[in-house]
Specification:
Chain lengths: 149, 425
C-alpha cells in the first residue's frame, strides 16, 4: 500500500535558495499560456486581379454573384464582422484568390484594417494596398492579462 | 492608370489612416478639389486647408497607389517645411533643395515602391537628378558626391541650398523642369493652420531637414570637433597645492577647540523618547542619549577663505582641494570679505556671501570671539592695514597666497606665508 502525502508548506531546508517556486515568464503578448488575455482569431487574406480600376464595383459584383447581395446596405446587414478591436500582424500564409463566401468577408475585414489594428467603427477603405494582404488577427484583453478581472 | 476621384480619395484615406509623419492632423481636415488649374498638386492654407489635385497629371504620370501616396507625402512635407522656412524669399534653388531633401526622405522611409515615381518623372537633366534616386552612372560628376550624401541623409536643406548656390549660382534658369507642388511665392497661412503645423512639427523632430535646430535640445547634423582638454600641468599644480595645504593644516597648525557632546549608553533614559519607543516596541535595546555632556578638546583646523573679487581664478581650484581635504582633516572653513560668514557646501562647491571687498579685521574679531588661537588664511594678499593690531598678540596666523597675489601685506606685518605656484596656461 502506498501512502502519498502532499505538503502544502514551502519547505525550507536551510540551504542556499532552498525555497523556490517556478513561475512562467511571459516573453511575448502572443504566447499562448493558457490565459484568456491573448487569443488568436483567424488568418485573413484576399487578392485582387492585376487590373482592377474600380475595386468597390468589383467586390459588389462578387457579393451579388456569390451571396445575392447587391448593395452595401444589404451587405452590412447580412455579413457579421468582428465587433471588437483586434491587433493586426502580417501572416506568412500564401495569398490566393478565392471566390468563396469566406474570402469575401475577409475583404471587408481587410478594408477596415490599417497596418496595426482592426477597428469595427472604421469606414471601409477599398484600395489595392489594403486588399492584397494576408494578415493574422489577434485579440488582446489587457484586463485579463494583468489579472484585473 | 485610370484614376477616378473615389479611388484617389480612398488612397488618401488609407494614407491618413497610416499617419506617416503625423500627416493625419492636416490631411484629415483638408478639402479635396480636383481641378486642372494647379499643374500637379498644391495645398492652400489661407483658410481651411485645401488640397488641389490635377487628375490629368495623375493619369499621365502616376501608376500605382504607392506612387500616389508618395505625391501626397511630398506635398505634405513641402507644406510642413515651408512652415519652418528660414528664408524670407522663395527662390528656384531653395525649392530645388527642399524637393531633393523631401524626395530623399520619402525614398529612405518607404523605399523604391514610393520613389519610383520620382525616378521616372525626373530625368538626368542637370540638378534635377538630385530629386530622384539614381544609379551612379546616371549622375553627372558635378553632383555625384552631393547625391550620395542626400540619399544617405547626411545633407540638410540649408546646406544643400548653399551648395547649389555655390555650384550653380542664383542665375540658374529653370528651363522646363517641373517641380511637384506649388512653388510660387509664399502664400499666407492662417493662424489655425499654423497651430496645426506646429503640433505636427512637435511630433517630428526635424533632424536631417535643417542643419541648425530651432528649439532647445534639438539635434543638428553630426559634426566633428576637437575639444582641448586640460593638460598635465594643471594636475601637477593641484597635486602640489594639495600636499602644501595638507601640511599646513595638520598639527601643530591645528587649533584645539572645545566641543560638547552628549553621551550615548545602553542605560534607559525616558527623556530620549525616540530610543524609548524603539525599546517598548520590542526591538533590541537601543543606545539612549544621556543628560550629561562630555567636554572634549577636538583638534580642528581653522581656515578663513578670502572670497573677494580678486581671488579668481585660483579660488575654484582651492575650494576643490579643500573639499578633498575636509574629509581627512577635521577643519572648519569660514569665508570672509568685509565680514566673516559660514559657507554652505553644495556638492563640491561652496555657497558663499561676499561684499567683494577684503578686510582682515573681521577675521581677527571672529577668532577672538570664538577663542581661536591659530588659523590658516587663504587670500591674495591685497588687504588693507589692520586696525585692531593689539589682538594679534593672542593669535597665530599663517597665510596661503594665491599665485597672482601680493606679498606686501604679509611682509609688512611679518606673517609667515607660502605663495602658490603660478597656474599653468
Amino acid at each position: 500500500m502506498e501512502i502519498t502525502r502532499i505538503s502544502k508548506a514551502l519547505n525550507n531546508t536551510g540551504g542556499p535558495r532552498s525555497r523556490t517556486r517556478k513561475e512562467p515568464v511571459r516573453l511575448s503578448f502572443l504566447e499562448a499560456l493558457g490565459s484568456s488575455a491573448v487569443s488568436f482569431q483567424e488568418n485573413i487574406y484576399f487578392k485582387l486581379p492585376e487590373y482592377c480600376p474600380d475595386i468597390p464595383g468589383y467586390l459588389l459584383g462578387l457579393f451579388s454573384e456569390k451571396m445575392g447581395l447587391s448593395s452595401w446596405d444589404a451587405i452590412s446587414l447580412a455579413i457579421p464582422l468582428p465587433e471588437r478591436p483586434l491587433y493586426v500582424f502580417p501572416s506568412l500564409n500564401n495569398v490566393g484568390l478565392h471566390s468563396d463566401e469566406l474570402n469575401l468577408v475577409h475583404a471587408l475585414v481587410l478594408a477596415r484594417c490599417n497596418s496595426f489594428t482592426y477597428r469595427p467603427d472604421r469606414d471601409f477603405i477599398f484600395t489595392a494596398h489594403r486588399l492584397n494582404r494576408s494578415l493574422q488577427l489577434i485579440e488582446f484583453n489587457p484586463f485579463s492579462f494583468y489579472g484585473l478581472e | 492608370m485610370v484614376w477616378n476621384n473615389e479611388r484617389v480619395l480612398a488612397v488618401l484615406a488609407d494614407l491618413i489612416s497610416e499617419n506617416p509623419f503625423a500627416c493625419q492632423a492636416l490631411l484629415s481636415i483638408s478639402t479635396i478639389q480636383f481641378n486642372t488649374e494647379t499643374p500637379t498638386l498644391s495645398v492652400s492654407l489661407q483658410a481651411k486647408p485645401v488640397l488641389s489635385i490635377n487628375p490629368d497629371f495623375l493619369a499621365a504620370h502616376v501608376e500605382t497607389e504607392e506612387e500616389l501616396k508618395a505625391l501626397f507625402l511630398h506635398e505634405f512635407l513641402h507644406v510642413l517645411l515651408n512652415h519652418t522656412l528660414r528664408y524670407s524669399e522663395n527662390s528656384y534653388l531653395l525649392n530645388l533643395a527642399l524637393d531633393a531633401i523631401i524626395n530623399s526622405i520619402i525614398h529612405r522611409c518607404f523605399g523604391s515602391q514610393y520613389s519610383d515615381f520620382f525616378r521616372r518623372f525626373y530625368g538626368n537633366q542637370g540638378p534635377t537628378v538630385l530629386l530622384r534616386p539614381a544609379e551612379r552612372d546616371e549622375i553627372p560628376a558635378l553632383f555625384l558626391n552631393t547625391h550620395k550624401n542626400i540619399y544617405l541623409g547626411n545633407v540638410a536643406a540649408d546646406d544643400l541650398h548653399e551648395l547649389l548656390d555655390f555650384l550653380l549660382g542664383q542665375s540658374i534658369e529653370p528651363h522646363n523642369w517641373i517641380l511637384i507642388g506649388n512653388h510660387s511665392s509664399t502664400q499666407p497661412v492662417s493662424e489655425e493652420n499654423k497651430a496645426i503645423l506646429d503640433g505636427i512639427l512637435k511630433r517630428n523632430n526635424g533632424v536631417g531637414i535643417w542643419s541648425k535646430g530651432k528649439e532647445p535640445g534639438e539635434g543638428n547634423k553630426l559634426e566633428h570637433r576637437y575639444i582641448q582638454g586640460r593638460g598635465p600641468g594643471i594636475a601637477r599644480w593641484r597635486a602640489q597645492v594639495y600636499m602644501q595645504l595638507r601640511a599646513y593644516l595638520s598639527p601643530p597648525m591645528n587649533s584645539l577647540e572645545h566641543q560638547s557632546i552628549r553621551l550615548k549608553t545602553p542605560i534607559a533614559n525616558a527623556l530620549d523618547r525616540s530610543a524609548y519607543f524603539k525599546w517598548i516596541q520590542g526591538r533590541m535595546l537601543p543606545m539612549f542619549e544621556q543628560q550629561n555632556k562630555l567636554d572634549l578638546k577636538v583638534p580642528r583646523a581653522l581656515v578663513y577663505l578670502d572670497v573677494s573679487a580678486s581671488m579668481k581664478p585660483d579660488l575654484v581650484l582651492i575650494i576643490e582641494l579643500l573639499y578633498a581635504l575636509k574629509s581627512r582633516i577635521p577643519m572648519e572653513i569660514f569665508t570672509f570679505s568685509n565680514a566673516v560668514n559660514l559657507p554652505i557646501w553644495k556638492g563640491k562647491g561652496l555657497k558663499v556671501s561676499t561684499t567683494q571687498g577684503t578686510d582682515l579685521d573681521c577675521v581677527i574679531d571672529h577668532m577672538n570671539k570664538h577663542k581661536s588661537h591659530r588659523a590658516l588664511i587663504v587670500t591674495d594678499g591685497y588687504l588693507p592695514s589692520i586696525t585692531n593690531g593689539l589682538q594679534l598678540k593672542y593669535i597665530s596666523l599663517f597665510f596661503i597666497l594665491s599665485s597672482t597675489g601680493s606679498t606686501h601685506f604679509v611682509n609688512k606685518y611679518e606673517f609667515p606665508y607660502h605663495q602658490l605656484n603660478a597656474l599653468p596656461e
